[in-house]
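User: For my dataset I need records formatted as: sequence, then structure tokens, nothing else. Please produce one.
Assistant:
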Amino acid sequence: MTARLIDGNALAREVRAEVAGRTAALRTRGVNPHLAIVLVGDNPASQVYVRHKMADSEATGLAATLHRLPSDTPEPALLGLIARLNADPTVHGVLVQLPLPDGLDARAVISAIDPRKDVDGFHVANAGALATGLPGFRPCTPWGCLRMLDAIGLALRGLQAVVIGRSNIVGKPMALMLLERHATVTICHSATADLAALTRQADVLVAAVGRRHLVTADMVKPGAVVIDVGMNRVPDGEPGAGRLCGDVDFEAVRDVAGWITPVPGGVGPMTRAMLLANTIEAAERQTA
């Protein structure tokens, strides 16, 4: 068996086309959908992510404004900028790129964003909405994973799903989204005993811990759908040093799984695409 690939790049193009159509429709009403991105400091990875988000926004017709702040920006100054963006009716989405430099409280910063403009879906109000089944913005990465499962026509009702990782950004919301679709969900983490015994039961396996090749072929149920959220680099001194790879041993697992996402070209493009979807949704809600 060789697993079929879930092409995140192709699916992201479809999402961007949907967003472009909805953006054009708003423009006919005189609404200019607008995403404000706040970047604090000079983290190289964050700069790359922000550059991609800006380009994606502009390609779909969304206005995107980047607010750059130095790494020594005091927290009150950052919160003041967020307050101004919250109050600006021409700004529909606000995103603060994480991680923040030392000395800044990420929870306080996220909590300062108006939940109606929280297009990352990290605010406690949106997290609570997800947990209680109410409408709200869903975190982009798990929502992108769910769209990938939808794209292959997978009916989740009654399936066994295992999520490796319990972060507020991916693991927890991913589990809740799978529960919404009536899957039976197990969350695994660093203290889980006999991880492989649990993952081998999974019809759907989501790996989201940031540990290279954590999931090996003997941990995967034959025919399972494997979603690899990990984004790691092969360390210096090893073959392929610097190359991106996931939490899943792709070459080995693809001989066992039924479907699998590649790294790169899998979940990453979908995360950025769902940010656009959240932004256009925010603009539509605020101008209805």
